[in-house]
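May I ask for an example protein's residues together with how it folds?

___
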Amino acid sequence: MLNEKAQDLRDQMVINKALNPNKSISVKSWLIFCFTWALWLFALYYLAINSQELFKTTIIGGWTLLDLIKAVSLIVLAQLNTLFIWSNIVARKVNQKRKQRLTALRIRQAIEETRYPKMLPKPRRKRSKKA
């Protein structure tokens, strides 16, 4: 009885998209995948066939393709170094803030857990009865 209910709940909650993929989306994604790889392979083939001409011909203001590749790689390396330095600075700041929060949390927990003795009021002295 319990197993049937559990199975019924599982059947209601699980979305079986993996078992029933949308055919038009699958076909489109495969076409885009094949087209993209065909373009890459064509670019590599064209580069292999015309490599001498491409690397020696000036493209922009006396710069060859090889010079442009070198310039772009220098720019990318500079950006990666800047990103690395920036991520180290940010990580250090985040760690400092995390330590501050943990310290504050530990202090708060220590205060809450500390049991101070109850301060009972001093018992009143009994007045002596004078007659």
